[in-house]
Amino acid sequence: MSVVPFASHDAVDPDAGDQSDSIALAPSEAFVSSAAVQDITERAMAYLEAGYALHLSGPPGTGKTTLAFHVAAQLGRPAILIHGDHEFGSSDLIGRESGYRKSRLVDNYIPSVFKLEEEGRALWIDNRITTACRLGHSIIYDEFNRSKPEANNPFLSILSEGVLNIPGLHGRGEGYVKVHPCFRAIFTSNPAEYAGVYRAQDALLDRMITLELGHYDRETEIAITASKSGVDPQRAARVVDVVRACRVEGKDPHFPTLRATIAIARVLATRGGEASYRNPVFLWACRDILSHTTPNGKSDQAVSPDFIDLILRRSEGAEEGGKATMRSGGRAAARAKGGK
After folding, report:
1. What is the pLDDT of residues 277-287, one digit of tens each?
2. 33, 142, 301, 308: most buried, per Cβ within 10 A?
3. In terms of domains, do 44 and 138 share one?
């Protein structure tokens, strides 16, 4: 079992059984919590504690996977991580026959009688979903709709009847696995119109509770940017304001994402300097990073360098205007005080 540093109250003690695919979620101070994050966490925990599967849906860069780990850590159980893949079949999730076991018994107890018995049996290897169902682990299925819909069919009986159907074991009388009462499933997905994504079957979506995620509020984005990049909150706020302005005034309200904000801030943390239009490092970082963060690689929705320069100048002008107003107000207050 590998250990992933992440936000939780206590480290997890693994159950008996095969732990090779499991991770224990250990505490970390790197996770950024705010009122908005805490609200989503509490709602997610309420649904999971009631026994439902959780589905975090939203565009890229909204923190779905990070939040999934955070919520799974609160459950206090080992977790198994799966990334959606278009090449997945059901056997990649539940298991398959792998190898062959042959036994041979020779009985020559009576010298005049020779008895020979041979038996062959295919070996069954559990895969990650079966392991989680047997041991009561949590499943984090990241971007599950990148897998073909038919590959996810095993979840239908898991989430409704609490039973995992394994056709390959029916001949042995082991075709059904009762799902452990502590088993929980957390899914994340991108919108269906994104490249490389399949539309999930309605029957599966009906068996889970979906939370639609969008971009966080300004204060949360500033805190996350400062934590992930190492810059001070003032520079983080400047970068966040520029990226949020690109979202508001650009062609797509979901792009650029928080990932672009963190990338720009990390460049500032590495090379130094202010988040200012007069800083060439900040200027070319914004042009390079923001002009290529487009949905589905659509060039007609790309953010042009001229547009980015306009946003930077306008943002800096507003900031300078605010400072000038404060200075003017301070001088007026001083004159009024002197007049008295």
Report:
1. 999 999 999 99
2. 308
3. yes
